[in-house]
Amino acid sequence: MLSPTGAKLEVHNVCKSYGLKGKQLRVLDDINLQIHSREFVCLVGASGCGKSTLLNIVAGLAAPSSGAVFVDSQLVTGRPGSDRGMVFQGYTLYPWLTVAQNVAFGLQLRQMSKAEQRDRVGYFLNVVGLSKFANSYPKQLSGGMKQRVAIARALANEPAVLLMDEPFGALDAQTKEQMQQFLLELWAQTHVTVMMITHDIEEAIYLSQRVYVMSAHPGQIKAEITIQLPERRELDIKLSPTFVDIKRQIIHTLRHDVATVSL
């Protein structure tokens, strides 16, 4: 079974339901979205709209009740592999391993040669600016540094798509902004295809080229918004009239959804 559109990542007619006390609770309803090669796309939505469920289905950590997910036109049938890298909100680093060993973990599972592992780990630690901390342990790092290690570990496998689940949600406001700028610079350097979920509207606008807005009960794609901002962005762009207008549009869409559910 091949992707109908040939997009880098495609979610095609995905639904997800859970059995609850003899009834079916529909969490996701007819989700359709496409992400093209080298795009950075964010999904935003209120808590409980199914963002994380959708990301887990794309990652292969959960199966859809119906519909399909494709990466490079191939049907996703299993857990994350070399085609899908995953970065979670929690740093998910192994505390007994050094930074370099954490980054190399997936490469070892692929039985890559020691020399190639060393070269690839060195390259990606340099990319995320942590070469000097290769022999440090996670407990010696700040929250932002830990998340850089997690991103380097995901990138080291050279995934077709990088999936990110609220990656900066546990960071303080200042570190979060620093990490947003770092991620945008990293994406400009690597041009990896990214699908990221976040509840932070400003973060979604600042980072992405397109934003999908999800409604809840059940989760559906309510709007697709193209971000008409320069590819190279500084933090001050969040104060620009264009940025504020986009934020107002997304807030209005989410507010209308909440009001509809409340009624």
TrEMBL record:
Q: Report the source organism.
A: Trichocoleus desertorum GB2-A4
Q: What is its main location?
A: membrane
Nucleotide-binding in keyword set: yes
Q: Any keyword Transferase?
A: no
Q: Where in the cell is it found?
A: Cell inner membrane
What keywords are annotated for this sequence in UniProt? ATP-binding, Nucleotide-binding, Transport
Q: Which domain of life does this protein belong to?
A: Bacteria
Q: Which family does it belong to?
A: Belongs to the ABC transporter superfamily. Nitrate/nitrite/cyanate uptake transporter (NitT) (TC 3.A.1.16) family.
Database matches in InterPro entries: AAA+_ATPase, ABC_transporter-like_ATP-bd, ABC_transporter-like_CS, ABC_transporter_ATP-bind, P-loop_NTPase
Q: What is this protein called?
A: ABC transporter ATP-binding protein
Q: What is the lineage of its organism?
A: Bacteria, Bacillati, Cyanobacteriota, Cyanophyceae, Leptolyngbyales
Topology in the lipid bilayer is annotated as:
Peripheral membrane protein
**Transmembrane domains' residue ranges:** none
Residue ranges of every copy of the ABC transporter domain listed in the record: 9-243
GO molecular function terms listed in the Swiss-Prot or TrEMBL record:
ATP binding
Q: Name one Pfam family in it.
A: ABC_tran
